[in-house]
Design brief:
single chain
């Protein structure tokens, strides 16, 4: 098979959300492409980076995007440079390298804006929305997702619209607006069903499940998590699959199915570790600390909180740092003044999900 045919095969597989298989096709195409064929190597490297990112291989994706970036810079093609910077920024975001990711994504956006490329600008805005969400800057995230949604609507880009609704759905959940979250994810899911985007369907199924979980509709939540699980397993996206497992485990934890919850959380932990997802590891440790409390193993629960604190050192994850303080208050005890300080810190970020009288097991959004 010629390298061009392998590339086309990779594109077909990528469009069908078969990312693991697409990676193999693009890697073979790259092996067959001589260094002198810079234009084709650039094309393949970008797509390889995209698919590696989708299966959680962020370090490998960074290498692919970095090589592509050098080729684009050598060719003095600014729009190609912007594409590579956007991909690189997303890979860095996946690794929690948020400051480096921010610089690359903002530079990509500047180039797209300079060249009057609204599609590229919308994509960069959406990517920045996810970055600010990971950093706990929920108000900034909302601004970026909303601006991206406006541009995608002007472009009549259904997939872009769907992914923006997913981003907004996650924000509304943390903001405590669970019904609005469900509307956003439901809107996204209908779009993804119509256009046949299997990854988008899995993403929105998980979001719908989480909205139901926060409204304590646990039967519906578990059903949607099962749908998301099935699709993610087939697609091979270990990053998003890990978060679905955490969500599933959290629902079971709230239902006090300790054995079932720990099983799902352990599966999630293995994937968080494999994809080097620090935020995910913190969420796993917090949930596990609750289970240990109910098992009467309070000392071990405290050790888990200490481990979570070590993971957060030097990391820009503001929301997770407040979560840790809340868990300390719930497990170690404290007065109402401390709780009000925690609540105030959540509100500063735009997170208003906390019940009046929080208790374990906690239904964390």
């Amino acid at each position: 098979m010629r390298k061009e045919e392998l590339y086309e095969k990779g594109e077909e597989l990528r469009a069908a959300s078969c990312f693991r298989e697409a990676v193999l096709a693009f890697q073979k195409a790259l092996e067959m492409t001589p260094s002198g064929d810079g234009a084709f190597r650039l094309l393949v490297l970008k797509r390889l980076g995209d698919c590696l990112r989708m299966v959680g291989a962020f370090e490998e994706a960074k290498r692919a995007y970095t090589e592509a970036l050098h080729l684009a810079q050598s060719a003095q093609d600014d729009l190609e440079v912007a594409d590579c910077l956007a991909g690189l920024g997303l890979a860095q975001r996946g690794l929690g390298e948020l400051e480096e990711a921010r610089k690359n994504l903002e530079r990509a956006r500047e180039i797209y804006e300079e060249y009057d490329d609204p599609e590229g600008e919308a994509f960069a805005l959406w990517a920045l929305g996810g970055l600010w969400r990971a950093a706990g800057e929920l108000k900034r995230a909302r601004e970026h997702f909303t601006e991206a949604l406006f541009l995608f609507e002007q472009l009549e880009d259904p997939s872009g619209i769907g992914y923006c609704h997913c981003g907004l759905g996650g924000l509304e959940r943390v903001a405590g607006n669970f019904e609005e979250s469900l509307v956003h994810y439901g809107t996204a899911n209908a779009i993804f069903q119509e256009v046949g985007d299997r990854f988008g369907q899995a993403y929105s199924f998980c979001g719908i499940g989480n909205a139901h979980r926060m409204m304590e509709h646990f039967g519906d939540a578990l059903e949607y998590f099962r749908r998301a699980e099935e699709l993610y397993r087939d697609i091979g996206d270990e990053v998003s699959y890990a978060w679905t497992l955490w969500s599933f485990g959290t629902a079971l934890k709230v239902l006090q199915d300790w054995e079932g919850a720990e099983g799902k959380l352990q599966e999630a932990r293995e994937l968080f570790a494999k994809t080097r997802d620090t935020r995910g590891m913190v969420y796993h440790l917090l949930a596990l600390s609750e289970i240990r409390v109910f098992e009467g193993r309070r000392e071990e629960a405290c050790s888990l909180l200490e481990e979570a604190e070590r993971l957060l050192v030097g990391k820009p994850f503001q929301l997770e740092r407040i979560h840790l303080e809340l868990y300390r208050w719930l497990i170690l005890g404290g007065d109402g003044t401390v709780l009000e300080d925690i609540r105030r810190n959540y509100r500063k970020l735009g997170a208003n999900f906390l019940p009046i009288s929080p208790k374990l097991p906690l239904n964390l959004p």
